[in-house]
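tool=predict chain=A
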Amino acid sequence: MNTYVKHKGIKSFFGGIGILSLLLGLGAALYGCGGGGGGGGGGGVAAGSLDTSFNTTGIVTTAIGGFGDVANAVAIQSDGKIVAAGSASNSGNYDFALVRYKTDGSLDTSFGATGKVTTPIGSGYDYANAVAIQSDGKIVAAGSASNSSNYDFALVRYDTEGLLDTSFNTTGIVIIAIGSGYDYANAVVIQSGGKIVVAGTSYNGNDYDFTLARYNTNGSLDTSFGASVLCPILSNCTGIVTTDIGGSSNDSAKSVAIQPDGKIVAVGYASNSTDTDFALVRYNAGGSLDTSFNITGIVIIAIGSGYDAAWSVAIQPDGKIVVAGSARISSNDFALVRYNADGSLDTNFGANGMVTTAISSDSDAAYAVAIQPDDNQPNGKIVVAGVASNSTGHDFALARYNTDGTLDTSFNTTGIVTTAIGSSDDYANAVAIQPDGKIVAVGYTRNDGGDEDFALARYLP
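tool=predict ok
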């Protein structure tokens, strides 16, 4: 059995596991259960090579707690500093953890004194699964916080020095119970007006649904989001939208993006009677389903013969939607799907809008996607990051694709790069493109002592 468990979003995937485990694989990743112009590295160094101006090796690892330090998200500030967010252990559980790095890979000691900030949210295990930078430089981290019996959406805002922003719900922290059970926030994005959209999954009493919540800039829920014409007289106005994708089964949103027209695109997976499929939902700016998108606002796509899951979404300059994830072919492979603006598959991309790539001979999983601007391809090249199996564990894995879905052979000659950070398991959970085109992948590495540390790798464009 090949099982991948990705700490981001408390999610477990692949290899015949149950749907409940798929959603609730709590911390299992810790114990081994499982964009500048692209196309040239410059200075005679090949695109896809590690950037030796970054910590001399192109790789940085950072220990935060005693064990189980996992980076799940990354954002690039306007000054080029890199913010990685995830979780770190304390004496008995896990806290939100943020680390800020200078452009050379060193810790930025102007951030939380040491470059590291940890924040306990709930009474037990707390995980930051996403991060975004506001236009004023404040940092928003989203994830899940434990209560006495399950998990709630958690949102934290920090000022530019890493201190909790007390103008945000007076404490800098907002915790919201969505459903009657486990609620997981997996993604966050800032709208043009400063409102904060969080996407994830919540329990409706029977199963799990796509869930979006929108917050005002002060941390309060935006009750205009998802409001009906009957609000507030005959219906609740909560600022929360839930969407049942697969009927009486489990659905989870893993990534979210905002289109230039303000529409909201959420991707993840929807369960069917035997496994899971890619799921894509588009909402109008007000939170209602966009019926100009596949009539229902929802698109479900089966790619392989088993568990398929979308983990990340990016919007091209032409408005087409690129979704990355994993699909079960002969083994588990990187999978990309590109959709037209109306929700139909873009048949100019790969085979009927779909591309699958085997990175290794065993199981691979793509967890993040970004569009890299390119002088020769107006809609950019597509950079995907994730994990690939090796003989002893897993490595960081990146693939770069041309706009038609073919592998970009100017990137490490094959279009594929794998990087061993440590001697065991290395997972790339997120990716970002710097303004100079360099590619930053973040995740974790399991060190020789069996503990996990934040891991970053920067690649030439």
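The first strand starts at residue 4 and ends at 6. The mean pLDDT is 90.
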